[in-house]
Input
Amino acid sequence: MKYAQISFPASVFLLFSLFLNNLANAQWQKVSSLNVGTTGKIVSHGQAILLYGSQSGPRLHRSTNNGDSWEEISGGLPGAASDIFSFNGTLYAVYLSTVYTSTNLGETWTPLSSVTVTGNGALIGMAADGATLFAFSNRKSVFRSTNNGSNWNEYIINDPGSFTMVDFCAVGNRFAATVTGGSTVSGAWISEDGGTNWTRKNPTTAASNIYAHNNIVYGLTFGGGVFRMESGSSNWTESNNGMPDNGQFVIPYSVTSRANELYVYYIQLVSNRTGVLVSTTNGQSWTQLDSTGFPPANAAGTSRRLAANATHMFFYNYATTAAGGVYRAVLSPSAVEYTGEQAVPDEFVLHQNYPNPFNPATTIRFSVPATNLPVRLRVFDVLGREMAEIVNERLEAGTYQATFYARNIASGNYFYRLEIDGRVQTRLMTLVK
Output
């Protein structure tokens, strides 16, 4: 899912500023008691939120109304998927050595391709960097695809030690993985040449998970908070400003992003303090979201996962108590700015995006001619598949602009469609990476 930066006319700027004045004002609401087991995960894809895991067999639940209601669609799963991943408008899943895709929001799954994991392992997760898709294993193998998963090339961490890969991400030719297997091998492994050669390189505290955002690799540690490795540097920098006790005893369990915002769910050892932190400065500083309604830290909760779409944050908390289930918080847009345009438009207009061609972001301007109209702005590929929903809300009369971030979408032509109170306009834009 991609996200919007919406600019409001003066007549409604104050109203929206008061209503959406701070990301940190999000409050949590439990929306479901669903239990998908200790390995459960949650993912956002288009208009859908998917909750999956293994609880008395494979489980997959879907919500298309931001968690208000859920339906079980487990029957279409090939097995207990290790990972379900949203990429280029398609849902992917990995199970054993096979990659599956779904084009109907998880209803049914079709085998796409299979790999052979050196060391007789299995695929456990997926990642993406621009138009490049990755799948990684529970051995030493990482697989790279440049054609949406139809074919794969294998890259192996070239160390004779015995270990298991836990997590993986990539930024260009920088591949990063975290592994477990003893004090001499555990932690972060980095390749600067696209997976050919690897070096064990940990932050001050060994990294247990890894994540890429805005061309920066983030290392999540067990008890030492977050570290980052920026593009052009091979060193880890501590990124704990604003965290409880500057990251001391902080375990970041789960991370997700929304446009330029980075979110981390954490637990602080000893104090059992918990919650979600947000950074809009690429990890240089953090702010705690309002924890009202958020579940307490629970030692039994081995699965604690975040997902975000354009308007909401979701948290799956596995617990053996009533605190288990799915929680939701409403998020404000990433920025609200006044454009300076005072005139109220007299017609419904969708302008050409700029820049065009673009990479990775472009601005879309549109005009709303009357007050309190339902507005929906979406992006589709040339086959008619929805790639992103940028705006879906009622807006006052005025001229707006929304920024479309084309992450995990391949180069090509795309249509963006504006729907206002039953009227539709469509334009073409080109992404070049």
About this structure: Residues 10-19 form the longest helix (10 residues). Residues 46 and 148 are 18 Å apart (CA to CA). The chain has two domains: 22-330, 336-431.
